[in-house]
Amino acid sequence: VQLVESGGGWVQPGGSLRLSCAASGFAFSSFRMSWYRQAPGKERELVTQINGFGDSTWYRDSVRGRFTIARDNIRNTVYLQMNSLKPEDTAVYYCNALYNRANDYWGQGTQVTVSS
To answer: Is residue 37 a contact partner of residue 48, using CB atoms and an 8 Å limit?
Structure first.
């Protein structure tokens, strides 16, 4: 099982980034996919999630309207489009795949830094 995130980096406030998470080794379309983030000194928090079919999503209030999650069940990849980025979005972003408690997988994380 592998989840490999990419697309992180540095961006100025108001800018955009697109994160990708490439999955392998499991039945991707059966898993709910999520993006979490962890800022320095803070607990990891759920940012957004999408169901297996890709027709149901959830966003935390602080990113709703700015972030968009999407998945491609052919390419086994989940994306996070982040627009209008703010300094408070600075964190390590993690991809998660969940089917049940025994099938709960994490990526290694990708750093997103928003600063001027």
So the answer is: no
User: What parts of the chain have a pLDDT lower than 70?
Assistant: none
Distance CA 104, CA 86 (A): 30
Long-range contacts of 43-50 (CB under 8 A, 24+ apart): 44/94, 47/80, 47/93, 48/80, 50/78
Coil, helix or strand at residue 52 = coil
Token pair, residue 103, equals 């099938």
Q: How far apart are the first and last CA of the chain?
A: 37
pLDDT score recorded for residue 32: 98
